[in-house]
C-alpha cells in the first residue's frame, strides 16, 4: 500500500501494530470503481499482515466521503454502471468482513456511498461538525446488495427508514443518539480518540476478535456473497433507471 501523499489510499504506521489508512481521493473522497478496489486491496494486505493489530480509517480532507462521483456517473454506460456496483460490493464487503479491529476517525461528513465507510467500521468516532446520510433515493439510485445488507445489519429499522426513504442527512449528535456514532468530539480531537480506541481493541486476542466478528456479521456477509454471485449470472444487469441521470444533475 503506498504511503506517498499522491496515492488515493495512504498507509501510515502508528507503532504498536496500529495502522492508519487515509482516504485520499481529492477533493472529497468521491467513490469510483478504481478508488474502491484500491481500498479493498489495501485492507486485504493489512488483513494478511501479521504485524498489524488494528486499523484507523481516516480522511485527508474536511469531508470524510461525499459518495458516488456524480459528475463522472452521468457519463456511465452500462459497463461502467456495473463496474461501480461491483466495486461498491467488493470494497465495502471487504471492510465489513475485515478480521481485525477497524475504527473510523470521522472528521467530516459521510454521505450516500461514503456513509458505508462509517457503517462497515467496528467503532465510529466523529467530529461534532459531521453529517451522515443515505442520499441514494434523491439521485434516483437504489442500493447494491453489499451496501444494502450492511445498512440492514448496522442500522435499527427506524434509522434505516428515515435515512433511506428521505435521503436527508442527520447531525453527528443525532447519529450518536441513535447509536450510529459511538463517540462525538471536536474535529481536532477525533484522530487521538480513534487511535486510543484502536489501541484498546488491539489488546483483545486477535483470533477471537476475528471469530466473534465473523459470527456477528456472517449472515449479512452470506447474503452479500450470494447476491454478488447472482449478479455474475445476469447478462442484462444494470443499475441506473430512467430517472437516475436527471436526478443526479439536480443534485450537482
TrEMBL record:
SUPFAM superfamilies: ClpP/crotonase (SSF52096)
Keywords for this protein: Lipid metabolism, Lyase, Membrane, Transmembrane, Transmembrane helix
InterPro entries reported for this sequence: ClpP/crotonase-like_dom_sf, Enoyl-CoA_hydra/iso
Transmembrane regions: 102-121
Source taxon at top rank: Bacteria
Protein name: Enoyl-CoA hydratase/isomerase family protein
Native source species: Seohaeicola saemankumensis
Amino acid at each position: 500500500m503506498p504511503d506517498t501523499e499522491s496515492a488515493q489510499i495512504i498507509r501510515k504506521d502508528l507503532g504498536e501494530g496500529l495502522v492508519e489508512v487515509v482516504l485520499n481521493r481529492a477533493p472529497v473522497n468521491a467513490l469510483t470503481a478504481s478508488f474502491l478496489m484500491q481500498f479493498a486491496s489495501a485492507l486485504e494486505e493489512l488483513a494478511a499482515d501479521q504485524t498489524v493489530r488494528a486499523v484507523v480509517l481516516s480522511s485527508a480532507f474536511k469531508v470524510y466521503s461525499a459518495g458516488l462521483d456524480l459528475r463522472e456517473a452521468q457519463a456511465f454506460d452500462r459497463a461502467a454502471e456495473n463496474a461501480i456496483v461491483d466495486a461498491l460490493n467488493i470494497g465495502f464487503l471487504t471492510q465489513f468482513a475485515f478480521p481485525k479491529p477497524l475504527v473510523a476517525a470521522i472528521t467530516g461528513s459521510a454521505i450516500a456511498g461514503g456513509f458505508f465507510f462509517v457503517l462497515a467500521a467496528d467503532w465510529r468516532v466523529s467530529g461534532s461538525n459531521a453529517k451522515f446520510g443515505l442520499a441514494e433515493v434523491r439521485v434516483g439510485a437504489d442500493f447494491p446488495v453489499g451496501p444494502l445488507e450492511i445498512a440492514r445489519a448496522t442500522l435499527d429499522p427506524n434509522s434505516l427508514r428515515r435515512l433511506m426513504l428521505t435521503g436527508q442527512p442527520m447531525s453527528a449528535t443525532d447519529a450518536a443518539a441513535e447509536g450510529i456514532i459511538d463517540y462525538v468530539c471536536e474535529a481536532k480531537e477525533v484522530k487521538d480518540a480513534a487511535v486510543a480506541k484502536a489501541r484498546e481493541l488491539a489488546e483483545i486476542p486477535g483470533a477471537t476478535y476475528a471469530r466473534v466478528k465473523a459470527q456477528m456479521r456472517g449472515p449479512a456477509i452470506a447474503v452479500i456473497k450470494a447476491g454478488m454471485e447472482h449478479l455474475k449470472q445476469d447478462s442484462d444487469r444494470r443499475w441506473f433507471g430512467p430517472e437516475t441521470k436527471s436526478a443526479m444533475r439536480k443534485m450537482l
